[in-house]
Amino acid sequence: MAFKPLVFSGVQPTGNLHLGNYLGAIKRFVEMQETHDCIYCVVDEHAITVWQDPKELKKQIREVTAAFLAAGIDPKAHIVFNQSQVSEHAELAWVFNCVARMGWLNRMTQFKEKAGKDRENASVGLFAYPTLMAADILVYRATHVPVGEDQKQHLELARDIAGKFNNDFRDSIAANGFDPEAGFFPQPEPLTQGPAPRVMSLRDGTKKMSKSDPSDYSRINLTDDQDTIAQKVRKARTDPEPLPSEVEGLKERADADNLVTIYAALANKTKAEVLADFGGAQFSVFKPALADLAVSVLSPINERMRHLMADPAHIDDVLADGSERAGRIARKVMDDVKDIVGFLRSRRDR
Ligand code: ATP
Ligand code: MG
């Protein structure tokens, strides 16, 4: 294989981490540690594509880090850091801004959703978000990216950027001693085959659960206490029918499907297994069971997060150490990129 398998993924410090982030991303991050070298990043530069209060941002960076550690990510065996401490991300993103085409970015649905009707007033950063995301991954020449389904389109774009870079600079890649057939950058693969790649809002089963949803009742936060979780599950939108006995019966029932998917993911079961237990049950029976399960999975994580947050200096040390180790890899790749693109660079010690 031309590229060493390496996992990279990130989470934005934009507010309350929720069950979608946990089931769609962080739980997968933890699992991937068993089989791969992993780099997990708190993507603070992505966060400021929309306004963030500076004091809150610092706290949120630490909170996402605490969630990573509390969920079981090992920052010694792998790498945990915040993006802005490794300047090569932004540096490579600039090169990618010159590789990616306006037409490609114009197709990105996340920009359309987040910019909404007032597109003229959206930041340039929000539009260019996917080129920075491509740089996050490719500055490590990472090969595998566990993400929720909503990020699939951005991963496709990262693949297109890697492909165009490899093609545009083919001769220079060869002249610098890299195999022009394999290219300089790998084609990073999205890993979205988790049990819940798209957790939906508890208020609307057709909308993704999101940190930026104004309604707190739309999501279960990792920091919610037992009563809040129970109340949110109780108020989750459902239809009047009992649960079906077969997965087929969840079709056209987005809200019911979402709750069953969440239950299955939390219990490490299939939806069929959950329906074997709950088929025919009313939501008045299923919802309390779901709330209990969510509490039993989330409260140990919640408790460890609180413990970690009580010692911010320790979190900052973890990030500084991770940033140093990530920076060493990124520096080397960025030096090669500079040679390939034709920049003159200083001869620093590596
Ligand atoms: P924001 O609304 O600020 O974009 P977010 O909830 O989408 O926040 P991100 O930090 O953008 O969170 O995403 C972190 C990871 O969580 C990504 O891999 C993303 O695909 C995943 N993710 C986000 N929401 C969900 C969801 N509802 N279901 C599954 N995965 C999700
Ligand atoms: Mg998002």
Describe this protein with a few key phrases:
350 residues, mainly alpha, two-stranded parallel ribbon, 5 strands, globular, binds adenosine-5'-triphosphate, binds magnesium ion
The tally of beta strands, per DSSP, is 5
Structure ligands:
adenosine-5'-triphosphate, magnesium ion
- Average pLDDT for all residues: 96
In terms of structural class, how would the helical and strand content be classed? mainly alpha
Describe the main β-sheet briefly.
Answer: 3 strands, parallel
| Strand and helix order | EHEHHEHHHHEHHEHHHHH
Summarize the amount of helix as a percent range: 40-55%
Strand order of the largest sheet: 1-2-3
**What is the overall number of helices?**
14
Percent strand equals 5-15%
Low-confidence stretches: none
Q: Tell me the distance between the termini.
A: 26 Å
Shape descriptor? globular
Rg: 21 Å
In short:
The protein is mainly α and 350 residues long.
What does this 3D model show about the protein?
- Helices cover 53% and strands 6% of the residues.
- It is mainly α and 350 residues long.
- The strands form 2 sheets. Strands 1-2-3 form a 3-stranded parallel sheet. Strands 4-5 form a two-stranded parallel sheet.
- Helix 4 (88-97) crosses helix 7 (124-138) and helix 10 (226-235) runs antiparallel to helix 13 (283-309).
- The relative contact order is 0.15.
- The structure holds adenosine-5'-triphosphate and magnesium ion (MG).
- Residues 11-12, 14, 20-21, 24-25, 147-148, 150-151, 197-199, 208-212 line the site of adenosine-5'-triphosphate (ATP).
- The site of adenosine-5'-triphosphate has 19 residues, from helix 1.
